[in-house]
């Protein structure tokens, strides 16, 4: 039986990646993800980090985000640009389309529900 208490940390090796090349608008953003929970029914939780750059985002899932460090600008197509920094929390709902621009390497906690 798996442990019922699961600490979220970055002591293990992350999954390294990048936004898809056809979505990158500027820079050479790189991502690191420590996915510490993957539960039945499409629930995920962990830590995500990205370096400088800007790319298009499109959400089919629901995501809660809490910024731990850095500065990013999240812009919804046809909507306002919102600067997020350490201490900020927000939700991106299914259907959100826009851009994510990392101005200073950004690290966030996330919970995703498919």
Automatic annotation (TrEMBL):
Pfam families noted in UniProt: Cupin_3
Residue ranges of every copy of the (S)-ureidoglycine aminohydrolase cupin domain listed in the record: 38-110
CDD domains for the chain: cupin_TM1112-like
InterPro entries in the record: RmlC-like_jellyroll, RmlC_Cupin_sf, UGlyAH_Cupin_dom
Coiled-coil features, chain-numbered ranges: none
Record Gene3D superfamilies: Jelly Rolls
Protein name as annotated: (S)-ureidoglycine aminohydrolase cupin domain-containing protein
Lineage: Bacteria, Pseudomonadati, Pseudomonadota, Alphaproteobacteria, Hyphomicrobiales
